[in-house]
């Protein structure tokens, strides 16, 4: 793709903003501006030209199509995967207990598979499958994030194509040849995420690319649009998948994998956002930073921030070069041990994330993301829970679960916007309104989840699910709030941290929720909902964090921001 010249677009809104900013102090990246601070030089309102708008629209449209396809594919997969795994576990159980229960077609009637032994094995296979997926994805998130910064986002996303393809093929082979491969062989499919890092890395880069081409005012709306697209796709595809399951669960399973791969193939038509726009040259091009600060160490020409840094061999880490990346050249091994190199790289590559540890509000919200993800672990077993507790078929249970977007989509389209614009105090800022809504959302999640765990019948379960779904905007509201707490050039690293934390939450949840759900199945009766009772307690902890959270005051204006900008405009 030929570079498109565009002089006036603000550097933070360019598509070539690094996925992970370089920590090299000689190339500090965009000027740090907080959303509450005054504009800096070169950031006064400008009108983007047609070329930049076309690139932005193309990127957004392609990313939306990718998200839509992947969400549809995953929604197709969930119900059929559970049913096929249940049938395999059920057949293997009765082979050792009572082979006469197995029909001529080699299958056991679904109604006979709701016994505790079969459901406990199914929960173990699902739970540990998620554990291995999440563990490997969390380990690979940072290195692939750094690769996206060095080599480009499109090329890093493209590495995930063989990973998704191999994962689909291995899963189908293991399930189809269940007389050869044990059901727990599915755990080894997690190794395919070595290629590209899996969904965690892919979605982290997608969120980052979308944030690169949106302003602060647009970002919350874009997040909710993504959410609505995902929920709409989930509703339609899950309903269709439930119908196809009544015919043959293999039909929606294979269809789901095909749709996921089709969505991931759109990577090939994505623009390379790292180099989509040329560096902006400020006017005048040689304005010195010393004009705005007395610090002689910061006399760096503004135009030099946009010049590509030439490759250089890094100095020996034994010297006073702690801010420079260590060299892994052959020559360096004669001077330093491998352990010293490892420590040096550890310090260097984690340094860009220190801004998270230095900001307590950001840490508090990240804790909420972690516990929220732990709490959401029970949703993985909701279809199985409904089928077991209320003696429904998995197709019926999957259809009921898929109906949740009929509540969440109107909530996102009309409910939350109406509350923000018509009900809440207009004197509140947009972020303050998001915080108010997040607090009420976590309350709905807590009450609704507890109701699901305690419901003795479907008649009480459905209202509880409606209440729980009413809080589904919580994570998107928190994502919007936390974005306003960091600088524009820190957003990519923040999103990477969020994805890693949520992946770690999945890892812990896959073990804890699986164990608790198995205990509930063994106890039976009222205690089948034990996992949802525990989840409600975790939501309470998130609620405490959110209700104790207060938005920080606007930070002091950086010394390189024009102080009298507003006064000049009024004049």
Structure description:
This protein has a single domain, classed as MFS general substrate transporter like domains (Growth Hormone, Chain: A), CATH 1.20.1250. The protein has helices at about 50-95, 115-150, 155-160, 160-175, 200-210, 215-245, 250-265, 340-350, 355, 360-375, 380-390, 395-400, 405-425, 430-455, 460-470, 475-485, 490-525, 530-550, 565-570. It is built from 19 helices and no strands. It is mostly helical and about 575 residues long. The radius of gyration is 26 Å and the shape is globular. This is Major facilitator superfamily (MFS) profile domain-containing protein. Keywords: Membrane, Transmembrane, Transmembrane helix. It is a multi-pass membrane protein.
How many E strands?
A: 0
Q: What structural category do the secondary elements indicate?
A: mainly alpha
Shape: globular
Kindly, what is the distance between the CA atoms of the first and last residues, rounded to a whole number of angstroms?
Answer: 44 Å
Q: What is the CA-atom radius of gyration, in angstroms?
A: 26 Å
Residues in helices, as a percent range: 55-70%
Number of helices: 19
Low-confidence stretches: 1-48, 276-334, 556-571
- Give me the CATH architecture, please: Up-down Bundle
The CATH superfamily label reads MFS general substrate transporter like domains
Portion in strands: under 5%
> How many structural domains in the coordinates?
1
Here the CATH topology equals Growth Hormone, Chain: A
**Mean of residue pLDDT values:** 73
Order of helices and strands: HHHHHHHHHHHHHHHHHHH
